[in-house]
Design a protein that fits this description.
CATH architecture of the largest domain: 3-Layer(aba) Sandwich
Radius of gyration: 25 Å
Largest sheet: 7 strands, mixed
CATH topology of the largest domain: Aldehyde Dehydrogenase, Chain A, domain 1
Number of strands: 23
Number of domains: 2
Bound molecules: nicotinamide-adenine-dinucleotide
Strand order of the largest sheet: 12-15-16-11-10-18-19
Shape: globular
Length: 502
């Protein structure tokens, strides 16, 4: 499928992809695929103003009716799943199957949000005063600012936007400067949904194209009560305090340093599959990628040679080719980070198998790498996320020690244990077990279903989005007490007699 065929199918006007001041390159071969126009900080002001106006209309549309727009959008995504999936592969370099998976995630969250649009339940709370009723009411919040990373160029927006839309909010999206074309494609499809729906105000969803400064202008604006920001911990460390400074709310979804523990009783076939997909899938560029593996000494020699063999036989290449399992890194900088991390690991006593650039002759401007395994010496750990396919391996003998070492890093996103020992599995998911937002048993760290709340602790930012009750972050909680008596009793039994009689 060529870019022109994709754009035609999606209905994205090719002229929006030329003549702009932001060049976009495909990681497949480094070829320029677009030059899109960046917004200025003045444009940001105008778009936020538009978003406030859209919000004022949209919040009055009944929630189940708002869900209808998301239902239509989900249908449009279903019809364009293959082309949007291919565009994801072309622009961010993940393999076509994973591109399709990402669009499926958008479709799934649309379905979830449609159901949710009839379930924005509040509570009825017992009042301490006679003939009083107390209720909790969830109200639309306002324009929601969404900042997203390059590696999930469409799904992360959909997780946020679909929930925000059914909650009665307008949305403004600042996608990664590395993947603006997929964002424009999502917007074009969203506009088609709005055209089929009579109650959508103008500018209900808008895009801001640009770099960090454009993100900052969104982050600093008081008219945007919620910023949902996905990206590196460095980005979250800058964004979190800026939003807090103006008393805004934020959902931070930041870097991970995810680990799998493989216990002696584990089904080694499952552990093997979960580890390989988790560590090399998306070329190691998922926030939930498996970066560390703690293997019990009794099974080390059964698992590690098998992993090394698998790593050396992976089909690496063009992500649009059906047999490819590992596509390219996003760019040269990502490759240099991987090289640095491997050099550092070696200096720390790690033994590296694999790594290094491949296919450089065929793709001089594409950065394809052999995934690497690093066997780390006793007493070491890895505290930083390198966004590349490197799997650090550690031996352990005691499960509590393995859990403690898994937890002894700044990040807290995803974790898992492979075991058939019930006590170990329950310990891992107990209050003294994994300290991550996601703790799986006999499933790898990578990927998650939309039904659960997604996010992590510590430097992963503490945010939760997608399923469960994450929707509450996109609404304003109101407590309302109604007095239907003829007296005015005060709370806590306070008497406040003014002495006045009729
Ligand atoms: P990045 O931090 O470089 O950029 C992410 C986004 O933030 C971009 O849109 C960028 O323009 C914007 N940005 C950067 N600095 C900003 C600032 N000061 N103010 C406002 N906006 C700013 O991340 P990336 O390289 O695109 O993505 C990779 C990172 O994202 C990894 O660390 C990965 O773990 C993380 N990630 C986390 C999740 C999650 O759900 N936890 C999901 C995907 C990616």
């Amino acid at each position: 499928m060529t870019l022109d065929e994709i754009l035609n199918d999606i209905g994205l006007n090719a002229s929006t992809l030329t003549g702009g001041n932001l060049d976009v390159y495909s990681p497949i071969d480094g070829a320029k695929i677009a030059s899109v126009a960046m917004d200025s900080t003045a444009d940001v002001q105008g778009k936020i103003e538009n978003s406030v106006a859209a919000f004022k209309e949209w919040r009055q549309v009944p929630a189940p009716r708002r869900g209808e727009l998301v239902r239509i959008y989900g249908g449009i995504l279903r019809a364009h799943k293959e082309t949007l999936g291919a565009l994801v592969a072309l622009e961010c370099g993940k393999i076509y199957q994973e591109g399709l998976g990402e669009v499926q995630e958008m479709i799934d969250i649309c379905d979830f949000a449609v159901g949710l649009s009839r379930q924005l339940y509040g509570l009825t709370i017992a009042s301490e005063r006679p003939q009083h009723k107390m209720r909790e009411i969830w109200q639309p919040l306002g324009p929601v600012g969404i900042i997203s990373a390059f590696n999930f160029p469409v799904a992360v927006w959909a997780w946020n936007a679909t929930l925000a839309l059914v909650c009665g909010d307008s949305v403004i999206w600042k996608p990664s400067e590395k993947t603006p074309v997929t964002a424009l494609a999502c917007q074009a499809l969203f506009e088609q949904a709005c055209a089929q729906f009579s109650d959508a105000p103008q500018n209900l969803s808008q895009i801001l194209i640009g770099e960090r400064d454009i993100g900052e202008a969104l982050v600093d604006d008081k008219r945007v009560p919620l910023i949902s920001a996905t990206g590196s911990t460095a980005m979250g460390r800058a964004v979190g305090p800026r939003v807090a400074q103006r008393f805004g709310k934020s959902i931070l979804e930041l870097g991970g340093n995810n680990a799998i523990i493989v216990a002696p009783s584990a089904d080694l076939d499952l552990a093997f599959q979960g580890t390989v997909f988790g560590s090399v899938g998306t070329c190691g560029q998922r926030c939930t990628t498996t970066r560390r593996l703690f293997v019990h000494t009794d099974i080390y020699d059964s698992l590690i040679p098998r992993l090394k063999k698998a790593f050396s036989g992976l089909s690496i290449g063009n992500p649009l080719d059906a047999k490819t399992l590992v596509g390219p890194l996003i760019d040269e900088q990502a490759y240099l980070h991987m090289e640095d991390a491997l050099n550092k690991a070696q200096m720390d006593g790690g033994v590296v198998t694999g790594g290094g650039r491949v296919l450089a002759d065929q793709y001089p401007n594409g950065y394809y790498v052999n995934p690497a395994i690093v066997e780390m010496p006793e007493g070491t750990n890895v505290h930083e996320e390198t966004f590349a396919p490197i799997l650090y391996i550690f031996k352990y003998t005691d499960i509590e020690d393995a859990i403690a070492r898994q937890n002894a890093v700044p990040q807290g996103l995803s974790s898992s244990i492979f075991t058939r020992d019930m006590q170990e599995a329950e310990l891992f998911t107990s209050e003294t077990g994994s300290d991550c937002g996601i703790a799986n048993v006999n499933i790898g760290t990578s990927g998650a279903e939309i039904g659960g709340a997604f996010g992590g602790e510590k430097e992963t930012g503490g945010g939760r989005e997608s399923g469960s009750d994450s929707w509450k972050a996109y609404m304003r909680r109101m407590t309302s007490t109604v007095n239907y008596s003829s007296a005015l009793p005060l709370a806590q039994g306070i008497t406040f007699d003014t002495g006045e009689t009729e």
